[in-house]
Amino acid sequence: MMIEEILTEDKIENGYKEMGYAKLDSDRKERTGFAEVVFCSGKTVEQLKDIYKHIYEEEGEVLGTRASKEQYLALKESFPEIVYDELSRILKIEKCDKEHLGNVVVCSAGTADMPVAEEAAQTAEFFGVKVIRIYDVGVSGIHRLLAKTNELKAANCVIAVAGMEGALPSVIGGLVKNPVIAVPTSVGYGASFQGLSALLTMINSCANGIAVVNIDNGYGAGYLATQMNRLALGI
Which pTM was predicted? Predict the structure, then answer.
């Protein structure tokens, strides 16, 4: 037996599959409750085909983020059931009989924040969460947000996505008793510093119960919201 084969066998047994350019974490779902998710940007088509094939064979579904339309068209040849959403850049093969439980509300301050908001919403939905979307309710027209107060209060957690000065999570944090996940986006003019201004606003929020993820990190917010939703449901 070749040395490479021995090493590969050992690595498979240790909870991951050695692919040379990647090490697929086959034990991740057992450890964390979530199977490995693919970050598509920067990967070649052949790498993605191979990774999607192995995860799909193991899990029966695959979630990929930050994918391009070109990657989607290339993978569709091998996976006819694959679905691509151009707004969120989610590229997924999903079980059709999935049950969606709980209640997570995803808010966006403006229409321009929707790509990040959709990445969050679709991530949570992929993981089995019931998601309600409330878009374009930024603080410049705060009556739009206040009209949705009942929906916000009923959620197990709220994801608040905002660029510009990033004030939306602070306002929501003052309205609800459940956790708020703040997502700064890179939307804004020069002094927004590609989302840094919104990030600093959210980190320095005077409202309680707010957690902040990285700039444009809708996926991270959707994942965290799923964990909170599962805790609220006791699952």
Answer: 0.90
